[in-house]
Amino acid sequence: MTPDLALHWSRWTFWAEEMPWLRLGLYLFLSTVVLGSLGSYLREHRAWKDGDTRKLSHFGHMAIATPLLVFLPPVQLIPAAILGTVAVIVIYGLAATSARPRVYAIVAASFREQDRPRARFHFFFPLVSGNVALVLAALLFPVDAVRVAFFTCAIADGLAEPVGLRFGEGNRYQVRDLIWGSANTKSLAGSAAVFLAASAIAMIFFRIGGIAGAAVVAASLAYGLIIAAIEALSPRGFDNMLLLFLAPVVIIGLGRLVGV
Question: Taking every pair of C-alpha atoms in the chain, what is the biggest distance, in angstroms?
Answer without folding.
Answer: 59
